[in-house]
Write a structure and sequence with these properties.
Layout (H helix, E strand, L loop, with lengths): L3 H10 L18 H13 L1 H6 L2 H16 L4 E5 L1 H18 L6 E5 L17 H9 L8 E5 L6 H12 L3 E6 L5 H5 L2 E4 L14 H20 L16 H15 L3 H10 L4 H10 L3 H10 L4 H9 L1
């Protein structure tokens, strides 16, 4: 007689991320330097696995950017390491790109306490994922990215299934081919990183791959939304001394203006980097720069073209 645990065991045994590698069965007997070499070699394979899925990643980014340009939000949902990576990526968007509160969000199975402690069983509830998303009042303009190394985690699959039923854009990011998560999403991204150095420890190669893809999803979406000027973070939120210094450097790199002119422009525009650059390059005042940027939906290049004719 089989039990649900037997079924799950067979399911996990069929996943490449869970595969056992007999050639590494005596890794604990190697020198520390040899283990570091092995691990570094394993990590070096991850970018190639990501590269194999760049067309799917780009298609997802274009779809996300379109929804966000219409006022939608970007929501990550996952359990364990994938959930933590989603929360991390979301938390870095406000200081880096000056995103509005709630514009980029991360949901982790088990809630905020799961960021620092394992919440056993939290990942097994598709219903909890639906409840967590219900609390956000999803709209068809929003995007939900389910993240799961195995591609079978009920919380991630449940989040994508619930969001798609509401008309939201959905992305399923996993590290196994033929995953339930990719099948449930309108955009499936499967980064096949293979068996781990430590059997089943998907915080390793799979986690690295997920971090790389999440970096792309958020960063390139923000580029498409006009949050950068070239490779400069012109929407940076200067909330501490380091970021205030960075703001001045960004204006200097974009305009090649002297320090006195940069300080005057930042003061006149309330520290807004985009506005300060526009006042210098277009020779307009702060009020005009604000209007030009508003008319250009925040795209500095577009505002500059409008100002300079």
């Amino acid at each position: 007689m089989t039990t649900p645990h037997d079924d799950l065991r067979r399911e996990l045994e069929g996943l490449t991320t869970e595969a056992f590698r007999p050639e590494l069965s005596e890794i604990d007997r190697l020198s520390t330097l040899d283990i570091t070499r092995l691990m570094n070699g394993e990590d070096a394979s991850v970018p190639a696995a990501v590269a194999a899925r760049l067309p799917q990643i780009a298609a997802a980014i274009d779809a996300i950017a379109h929804r966000m340009s219409q006022g939608g939000r970007l929501v990550y949902a996952g359990a364990g390491t994938p959930g933590r990576l989603g929360v991390l990526d979301a938390s870095e968007c406000p200081p880096t790109f000056n995103t509005a509160p709630g514009q980029v969000l991360g949901l982790i199975a088990g809630g905020p306490s799961a960021l620092v402690s394992s919440i056993e069983g939290a990942e097994d509830s598709a219903e909890q994922a639906a409840a967590d998303l219900t609390g956000l009042r999803l709209t068809p303009a929003d995007t939900v990215v389910g993240v799961s190394a195995s591609g079978r985690t009920p919380y991630a699959v449940g989040a994508v299934t619930h969001a798609r039923a509401l008309g939201a854009l959905t992305v399923g990011l996993s590290c196994n081919a033929g995953s339930a998560l990719a099948a449930a999403a309108s955009h499936g991204i499967e980064i096949v990183t293979g068996p781990e150095l430590i059997t089943g420890s998907t915080r390793l190669k799979a986690g690295t791959a997920q971090k790389l893809v999440l970096n792309m999803l958020s960063t390139i979406t923000m580029i498409r939304l006009g949050k950068t000027y070239g490779n400069l973070m012109v929407d940076v939120r200067a909330s501490n001394d380091k970021l205030r210094a960075r703001s001045r450097r960004i204006v200097a790199l974009a305009t090649d203006a002297p320090d006195e002119e940069i300080e005057a422009a930042l003061t006149a525009t309330g520290g807004e980097v985009k506005d300060a650059i526009l006042t210098i390059l277009a020779g307009v005042d702060a009020r005009t720069s604000a209007k030009l940027l508003a008319d250009a939906d925040g795209h500095l290049r577009t505002a500059l073209r409008a100002a300079l004719g």
